[in-house]
Design goal:
3-stranded antiparallel beta sheet; about 300 residues; hpI Integrase, Chain A
Length: about 300
């Protein structure tokens, strides 16, 4: 029995979680078309029918992030169809502004909830080195609560074991007192996966993959653009490193992290004694109970 284009598209996604999310969102799209139009196949979808769907989404009592995610799944599906040569254009616009309620507009820092962060991660296609790099970037920022200067300065070997745990070393150039922040084993494993793809055990963690300057350290501005692009692909407008940092801290807070733990993890203290985790007790102490353990995201292998 021949598979439909949608089934072939879903089968091409490497992640089971991504397949489930995309299947649900695509089913909502095509159910809308069946109710309101004579469209029955992707080849019959027009810009006008997509505009009707967008207007319907705007009228639904869904969060802005859910509306963006639903449209992003449809956009990604038509991108795939075009890559496969099944269509010559994508009828889904690259940028859509959904009307927001006053509650939605109270989010200038773009703090994402668990579902929205998962959608960002699931939207990254990790079949390429670039995809693995971009996925790792988001994961490291969220779990390490890193600022742009901190993340831009990272080398591969800055993610290292300390006692029974894994930490991210923060250079004195990025953080006045230096120090380190603990991350879960799954984050360290993702970093090692990327290093294996680089075939390097040292050097910049975030490097260019273009032919012109391949292997060079990416600038903070380049990292900003990567995060912005990843957000666009997931239907999240204006995603930034600061948004990811704050979102991770918010998730940890919602799952029981204390204010003191959050301040230490985010390096918000002003003295050297509290700005970094203690290094004289690598087997326990603050390292044994990390804020990053309270961030409930499923990092797929």
């Amino acid at each position: 029995m021949n598979k439909t284009p949608a089934e072939e598209f879903l089968q091409s996604r490497p992640s089971a979680e991504t397949r489930r999310a995309y299947r649900y969102d695509l089913e909502r799209f095509f159910e809308f078309l069946e109710r309101t139009t004579d469209v029955r196949t992707p080849a019959e979808v027009t810009r006008a029918s997509v505009r009707d769907y967008i207007r319907a989404l705007k009228g639904e009592s869904l969060s802005v992030s859910t509306k963006r995610r639903r449209l992003a799944a449809v956009r990604r599906f038509f991108d795939w169809l075009r890559e496969e040569g099944a269509t010559t254009f994508n009828p889904v616009p690259g940028s859509v502004s959904f009307d927001t309620t006053p509650e939605d507009s109270q989010d200038p820092a773009q703090v994402l909830d668990r579902d929205a962060l998962s959608a960002v991660l699931n939207a990254i296609d990790r079949d390429s080195v670039q995809g693995q790099r971009d996925y790792t970037l988001v994961v490291v920022v969220v779990y390490g609560a890193l600022r742009r200067s901190e993340v831009a300065s990272l080398d591969v070997d800055d993610v290292r074991p300390l006692g029974r745990h894994w930490v991210i070393d923060l250079s004195a150039g990025a953080q006045p007192q230096g120090g380190y922040v603990r991350v879960p084993d799954s984050v360290a494993e993702q970093v090692q996966r990327l290093a294996t793809l680089y075939d390097e055990e040292e050097g910049p963690l975030w490097r260019s993959l273009s032919n012109r300057n391949r292997g060079d350290r990416l600038t903070p501005d380049a990292l900003y653009k990567i995060v912005r692009r990843v957000g666009d692909e997931a239907g999240v407008d204006d995603l930034s490193i600061d948004s990811l940092r704050r979102s991770g801290l918010q998730l940890a807070s919602a799952n029981g992290a204390s204010i003191g733990q959050l301040r230490r993890h985010a390096r918000l203290q002003t003295t050297a004694s509290t700005a970094k985790y203690t290094a004289d007790d690598p087997g326990g102490g603050r390292l044994s109970s990390s804020v990053s353990d309270r961030i409930p995201l499923d990092l797929e292998q």
